[in-house]
Input
Amino acid sequence: MSKSELPERVDAYKMADQSSQLEGVIAFGRMKRLSELVVEDGADFEAQLQFERDEEKRRLVSGSVSGSVALECQRCLQPVQYDLQSHFRLGIVYNDEMARALPGDLEPLMLLPDQSLDLADMIEEELLLSLPMYAAHEPGDCQIQTEFKPDDQDESPATEKDNPFKVLESLKRS
Ligand SMILES: [Zn+2]
Output
């Protein structure tokens, strides 16, 4: 089952009034800020969105988005793959007063009634918030090399006896 690309912009006010749902993919290339933080272009993200009005007549957008990105490992500088998943609940507001009046479980989404909502921008914002503070491989999975050669990426990792990090480790333990 192939999912269709989410539209660029939607009328979020109208969609909330009509309790509309959207489900689809969002191409990685539509998220420029995220693109600058990754080391390889990622695949599409999948998103589900629900627009509605709550019992207080507030307009809400809730949903989830998931996908994976390759970030640079802060230890070995090689790509490390992260699965990102974000669940969000946003209250649509058009001034600070409305934003302040939102209950604690709702994040404000600032949007004027005559403004259309840029879906990629909203989803990207949520994804940026779900990025790890510190990207790194699991301990032991780093591809730390003592000397860097450009075409030995497929070689097996250094054996124990000539790996200086192992030697250090055993010194620390004794
Ligand atoms: Zn690493």
User: Anything to note?
Assistant: Helices lie at 12-17, 32-35, 96-100, 119-129, 164-173. The chain has one domain: 9-141. The CA atoms of residues 99 and 143 lie 46 Å apart. The first helix runs from residue 12 to 17.
